[in-house]
């Protein structure tokens, strides 16, 4: 079996754009080798990303060619130059995370991951190139785990799809990927050369980090490795054409989440919270995190908002419902809706039969479709506002 040192020794032959060996350019992450699979990333200044793409490809080829290596994943991640970002909020806002929104959906340029020369520069907050043929990427996030983030992400995606949009669902929750279970998916996606074909479930294109790693795999992916995986799931999956890609983010507001929010070209974020105070504090952190990286907060959803008794239909406000609505108002972000704590939601989720797809006429499905409509409005409102405001970088 190959070791990280074997790989590194081979990489000394690959040259950086300035001619130095790439191993001496100070850009390589730690090299992780697990069972013949190699994961690593190259982090460069955003402005130099284009020059580095051929180097990334050469590094990946070289790693794959190392005896004992069965597969390799090398991601190029762009970093903002220290001090390059002006302070405050008076920066140009890109209308969507994807260079112009829906009008571009369907115009896939497979293989071109960078903006064409001559286009205006991308939003300085988001140097990450958009995904060709994907209208907008939105994140579903929560300050902590277990609040129903994945259940919401899946049913939100289905609710958006029910209105006729082409929707993808990307499970980026490296700590507990649950989309395969939620969507009743088993097995692995097909890989053609470098590109992965997303799996299909209930009309959605679905990709999960859970398809790439075994459930028992120890959590060795940290820091840049997480970025590599996310980057691959964005760039090396045949998502296009899509109107919206819904990303189930890892819970929490630590460095990993912050970096991810910066790495993924997000058009907006939906924050899921339960009504309890503690969760709301976490939700506040989540909102602050996205605001810090200038990702618009599309709104807050209160999950397990109230209890609907499956026998008598009586509603009980177990957790003192309404906290998230007030908090959203206080923070000036939209409130997108409330989902009851309901047995049928848990049962359908755990059975891989998401309620919006399998019981479209139920009140619960209606609630999720309402939230999907609110998310669309919020996304459209952001675009509308952004269009009217000065100093906008319009693309395309
Ligand atoms: N509104 C709800 N009513 C009942 N059960 C729910 C609801 N939302 C989520 N659940 C259940 O709670 C558990 C955690 O939900 P999940 O979506 O996996 O949370 P997270 O992704 O935040 O960890 C799952 O068993 C799920 O079925
Ligand atoms: Mg989850």
Automatic annotation (TrEMBL):
Source domain of life: Bacteria
GO molecular function annotation: 4 iron, 4 sulfur cluster binding; ATP binding; ATP hydrolysis activity; ATP-dependent FeS chaperone activity; metal ion binding
Cofactor: [4Fe-4S] cluster
Protein's name according to its UniProt entry: Iron-sulfur cluster carrier protein
Organism encoding this protein: Ancylobacter dichloromethanicus
Gene name linked to the record: mrp
Protein's job: Binds and transfers iron-sulfur (Fe-S) clusters to target apoproteins. Can hydrolyze ATP.
Example GO biological process: mitochondrial respiratory chain complex I assembly
InterPro entries: FSCA_dom_sf, MIP18-like, Mrp/NBP35_ATP-bd, NUBPL-like, P-loop_NTPase, YlxH/NBP35
Region of interest called Disordered, as start-end residue ranges on this chain: 84-130
Keywords in alphabetical order: 4Fe-4S, ATP-binding, Hydrolase, Iron, Iron-sulfur, Metal-binding, Nucleotide-binding, Transit peptide
Family of the protein in this entry: Belongs to the Mrp/NBP35 ATP-binding proteins family.
SUPFAM superfamilies in the record: Fe-S cluster assembly (FSCA) domain-like, P-loop containing nucleoside triphosphate hydrolases
Quaternary structure and interacting proteins, as annotated: Homodimer.
Domain MIP18 family-like: 5-74
Residues noted as binding ATP in the record, renumbered to the chain: 143-150
